Amino acid sequence: MSALFRLTSRAVALQRSAALNQAAALRLCRSIKTSPKKDETVAAPATVTTEDFANPNPKNWISYGFDYKSEAEDRKSTKSTFFFAVTLCLVWGTFYWSYLPDTKLRDWAQREGFLELRRREEAGVDLISPNYVDPDKIVLPSDEDLGQTEIII
Fold this sequence. Notes:
Elements: H1 2-30, H2 50-54, H3 71-98, H4 106-123, H5 143-146
């Protein structure tokens, strides 16, 4: 019985040491950084000259593509372009388009159809007349003209 107790205590000790080794390895892996550290670079403070004040363009300015020489003109052109494109075209254009009158008279045709259906229901007449087209105006081919043509009804 004591041998079994010793064996299990050794197994537990091995599991604990394996878990500690694995935790230490994870800590080492987590401390590896692939980006350069900011503290390692040494930058000497640049002295400000009168030329820096004469050139108001910042060094890291990226143009939006409207003006490559002046940041103020570039920003102004960008803002005005987006104002006209978004506000005037998208917002007001959508508003105008949605409130246009019914040029193809779809709403009128649907209302007239419903009124005609109601009138025919109240009068007790067929909803669609079987003689919608005058039978005298329909010209059908004769049996000789049809020949062996299959007619599907």
